[in-house]
Amino acid sequence: MSYRQWRRGWVAAALAGLSLAGCGQEESATEPQLRPVRSMVIGGADAQRIRTFSGISKPAQESRLSFKVAGTIVDLPIQVGDALKAGDLVARLDASPYELQAQQAQASLVQAQASERNAAANYERVKGLYENSNASRNDLDAARATSESASAQVAAAQKALELSRLNVEYTRLTAGSDCSVAAVNVELNENANVGTPIAVVNCGEGLEVDVSVPEGLIARIRQGMEVGVQFSALDDAAYAGRVTEVGVSSTDNAVTFPVTLRVIDPGPDLRSGLAAEVSFAFEVSSTRQLIPLSAVIQDPNGSFVFLLNPEADGKAVISRRPVTVGELTEDGLEIISGLESGDRVVTAGVSVIRDGQRVLYTERGNG
Q1: What element of type H or E holds 303?
Q2: Is the pTM of this model over 0.85?
Q3: Which domains can be identified in the chain, with CATH numbers?
Q4: C-alpha–C-alpha distance, residues 272 and 260, integer Å
Q5: pLDDT per residue over 20-69, tens digit each?
Q6: How far apart are CA 71 and CA 73, in angstroms?
Q7: What is the rounded end-to-end Cα distance, in angstroms, of the chain?
């Protein structure tokens, strides 16, 4: 082979290589780069939205026991944790002052009864004299008034005796029903005033939880609604609950309303004072959906969203869908019409996509 022939062959080979390289670069340059977006799937008519609120467990019936009379505590047989039966002694005051008052009231009653008998006898005597014209009308009226006054004094003395005897009974503080002692607020030999809390008792086996619900959800909560309850102190053990009370006014001028629920079958491990998480399941309408505000776009033609038509390997094609929007809530923007169950709506990346574009998508989860 001559040098000229060798040179021609080398140039041809080089040109062929450059041509192939150029084709490869052109093919690489024309390969589109897919944009990533996030999406959510619209739920059906039976879809539920879970909202969780914190609360503290408390007994269904909690009583603060106190005396109706004042005195010195001379007997205090209870301790925290004790189980009490109905009628069991909680505390006892020194009853001596009230017993003396009862004795004094008894003596006053006897004296009033004697005065009543004397006044009645005198009235009968003056009445006879008046009938025989030996006493004036004034004498008769005075005797009758004295007799009636004596009878009134007897009635008053009887009431005073009853009250003094009640005060003696009030020196004993007893449990009104089966309960357990949650707190003892006094010590032996202390002076207790009327209404001073002596002990706190939890009665019955019921357990309740109080939570605060935002104003946007309170209208959807009804008495008898079933909820889920978890207690972190018990390794997030799950219990069933039922709403028993729904507040009609906000608490402390806040935008939350009180809701009380009763724990169903609490069992022996539950007690008052435990931190609880209460989960409410709210139904999601098939025609009214809540989606993030960022998923809705406004233009002169109205509101619309981007839907995904999934393909293989996490790829999808964008399509535009007009929607009718409702109110903006704390859970998202309400969509009155335009979406159906199973639609996959783009929730992030809407500003960089267009109708008919192919993208890569990830799921955000059901709305």
Answers
A1: strand 302-310
A2: no
A3: 35-45+287-363 (2.40.420.20), 51-61+205-283 (2.40.30.170), 95-170 (1.10.287)
A4: 14
A5: 444 444 444 455 678 888 888 876 544 567 788 999 988 878 889 999 99
A6: 6
A7: 77
